[in-house]
């Protein structure tokens, strides 16, 4: 199978676009310098096009095309710099020989074509033109590589985000099913309501959270349902409050970012206290900044030390770095009996 069969249609189109632009650059350079460097010759009252100079210019362009589309990809871009240097010398010497032994003998047989001026002299004369064309190719490739790198980075970030998001669902489901199991063992009459709340939450997680960003009002509703579900576990052992303020309808946020901190509140308190639990959660939107402030009490000596280092918190920190780099402020304060999270996110993309 020939090498050309491995080149897809978009790649061939880009190749022809690049070559076409190089030809246009050569023509623009020619016409831009023709009046001062002999591109036109005076004849009578007008000017006659000196097309022989254009032929010499395209000889330089041919050398540049060989460098751009043979030597650069075959040697330079894979680190074979010695081979690339040798190839440059061969191409330039070949271009000099074409000019001296072919073009000048055809167009100037009695003057320039009657003598050989030497490789070095011709090298000095043609190298600026060849460098111009090769420089264009370098700039074009650098821009394309930057775009490819940007797309690759986005793809990697997206894959990582999908992986992190997939970790949240089983983590939440595991905790919720544990709570549901406890109520089922007690044959509590609240079990049907818990199942209904859990169904609503799972519906949001499975369907609404497929997008990279969701309406903030839906995320707030999800948080409200979550708090109601978790409050059933606390019952008369303490107080839970959730307040929200701001117009959430026109704003978007990455899904399942805020819920991790709220879930952490309940784990902290319920794992260390049997009574006097106090959890305060406040969600607000001021301008373009979403603020979540969570406070929960916990026993001074408890088994919650490992909770602050759990998968959920590390997960959400990674997601914040990927989704909102330099656009969030997270402050966590763990005193003897109160754990506080203060998160601010600038949600403007």
Structure description:
It is a single chain. With 349 residues, this protein is of the alpha+beta class. It folds into two domains: 3-147, no CATH class; 189-346, Heat Shock Protein 90, CATH 3.30.565. The protein contains eight helices and nine strands. It has helices at 9-37, 51-74, 81-107, 119-185, 191-206, 216-234, 259-272, 311-323; strands spanning 40-43, 46-49, 214-215, 238-245, 252-253, 277-286, 289-297, 328-334, 338-346. The strands form three sheets. A five-stranded mixed sheet has the order 4-6-7-9-8, with helices on one face. A hairpin with a 2-residue loop joins β1 and β2 (46-49). α1 (9-37) packs antiparallel against α4 and α2 (51-74) crosses α4 (119-185). The radius of gyration is 35 Å and the shape is rod-shaped. It starts with 8 loop residues before the first helix and ends with a strand. The model is unreliable at 1-10, 35-40 and 42-48 (pLDDT under 50).
- The number of E-state strands comes to 9
Q: What is the rounded Rg?
A: 35 Å
The residue-averaged pLDDT reads: 77
**Widest β-sheet, arrangement of strands:** 4-6-7-9-8
Map the helices and strands:
Blueprint: H1 9-37, E1 40-43, E2 46-49, H2 51-74, H3 81-107, H4 119-185, H5 191-206, E3 214-215, H6 216-234, E4 238-245, E5 252-253, H7 259-272, E6 277-286, E7 289-297, H8 311-323, E8 328-334, E9 338-346
Parallel strand pairs: 4-6
Antiparallel strand pairs: 1-2, 3-5, 6-7, 7-9, 8-9
Helix pairs in contact: 1-2, 1-4, 2-3, 2-4, 3-4, 4-5, 4-8, 5-6, 6-7
């Amino acid at each position: 199978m020939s090498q050309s069969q491995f080149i897809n249609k978009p790649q061939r189109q880009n190749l022809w676009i690049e070559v076409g632009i190089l030809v246009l650059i050569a023509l623009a350079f020619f016409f831009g310098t023709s009046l001062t460097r002999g591109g036109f010759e005076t004849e009578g009252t007008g000017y006659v096009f000196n097309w022989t100079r254009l032929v010499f210019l395209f000889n330089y362009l041919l050398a540049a095309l060989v460098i751009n589309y043979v030597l650069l990809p075959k040697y330079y871009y894979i680190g074979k710099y010695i081979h690339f240097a040798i190839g440059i010398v061969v191409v330039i010497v070949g271009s000099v020989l074409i000019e001296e032994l072919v073009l000048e003998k055809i167009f100037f047989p009695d003057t320039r074509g009657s003598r050989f001026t030497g490789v070095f002299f011709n090298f000095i004369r043609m190298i600026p033109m060849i460098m111009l064309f090769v420089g264009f190719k370098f700039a074009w490739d650098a821009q394309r590589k930057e775009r490819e790198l940007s797309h690759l980075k986005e793809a990697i970030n997206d894959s990582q985000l999908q992986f992190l998001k997939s970790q949240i669902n089983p983590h939440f489901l595991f905790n919720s099913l544990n709570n549901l199991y406890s109520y089922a063992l007690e044959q509590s009459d609240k079990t049907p309501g818990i199942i209904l709340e859990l169904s609503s939450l799972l519906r949001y997680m499975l369907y609404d959270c497929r997008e990279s960003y969701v309406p903030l009002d839906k995320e707030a509703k999800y948080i409200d349902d979550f708090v109601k579900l978790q409050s059933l576990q606390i019952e008369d052992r303490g107080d839970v409050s959730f307040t929200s303020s701001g117009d959430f309808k026109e704003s978007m946020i990455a899904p399942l970012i805020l819920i991790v901190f709220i879930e952490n509140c309940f784990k902290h308190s319920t794992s260390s206290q049997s009574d006097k639990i106090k959890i305060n959660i406040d969600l607000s939107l001021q301008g373009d900044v979403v603020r979540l402030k969570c406070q929960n009490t916990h026993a001074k000596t408890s088994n919650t030390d490992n909770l602050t280092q759990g998968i959920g918190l590390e997960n959400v920190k990674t997601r914040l770095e990927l989704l909102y780099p330099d656009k969030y402020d997270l402050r966590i304060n763990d005193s003897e009996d109160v754990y506080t999270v203060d998160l601010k996110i600038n949600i403007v993309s």
